[in-house]
Design brief:
two-stranded antiparallel ribbon, alpha+beta, 3 helices
Length: 85
């Protein structure tokens, strides 16, 4: 049922979801005491390291801070085009 709800959600739900996600990210930043510029720097460094080994699609690379119970996780999604070996 949840899958069907996700497929048929309305635009109002999308706006509400984005607002909740922004608030969640702000709370995680506050808990981690992580300035936004530090996160941007970390993302650039991770892209540089992965780029040494793989050709990646920078346009679709995504980073997300997620919280699980009282722990935070940085989830990175690097679409790999090919290996540089």
């Amino acid at each position: 049922m949840q899958v069907l709800n996700w497929f048929f959600r309305t635009k109002g739900d999308d706006v509400r979801t984005r607002a909740k996600d922004r608030m969640r990210l702000m709370l995680i930043h506050d808990r981690l005491e992580l300035p936004p510029d530090r996160l941007a720097s970390l993302e650039e460094e991770l892209i540089a390291v992965v780029s040494r080994y793989f050709e990646i699609d920078r346009d679709t690379t995504r980073f997300d801070l997620q919280q699980y119970e009282r722990r935070a996780a940085l989830v990175a999604n690097f679409p790999l085009l090919r290996s540089k070996s």
